[in-house]
Amino acid sequence: MILIGFGANIPSPEFGSPVDTLEAALVMLGKEGVAVDRRSRWFTSPPVPPSDQPWYVNGVASVVSSLPAPDLLGLMHQVEKNLGRVRRTRWESRIIDLDLLAYDGQVIEQKNDGLRVPHPRLHQRLFVLLPLAEVSSTWQHPESGLSVAEMIEKLPEDHRIQPITSLNAP
After folding, report:
1. Whole-prediction pTM value?
2. Cα–Cα distance between 160 and 169 in angstroms, integer?
């Protein structure tokens, strides 16, 4: 199973709200042969680490692609660029953020291109795990062997996330 995490917390001048930008990312990936198999609802969550940034919109999709992991990551970075993302500093507000969360149960680390799957912090983030549970409640972390439910259970109780009930949400 190939899993992509989607996030955004500022509007795009060209595409609009974070939800609209994330939807545009799904369309762009589809046009490049990355087919969405299942996807979660969109959720809102506070920025990590805590800051005065706007809350994020997040979701997860299970996709089908013939691209090897490095090429898929490269395509995801190109989609981010096409949607207006400019990488400056870590953990800044962003128009779009696409993360390769998992790739067919593989454990990959390539420092030269920044590829690491499974994503090194996915087990610490409710804004990834709750949408992931909607996509595949049976998925297990290839390194720890933990299920999505077990990873959620290990998180501190102060993590906050809520589903978006209206497309007019942040």
Report:
1. 0.93
2. 16
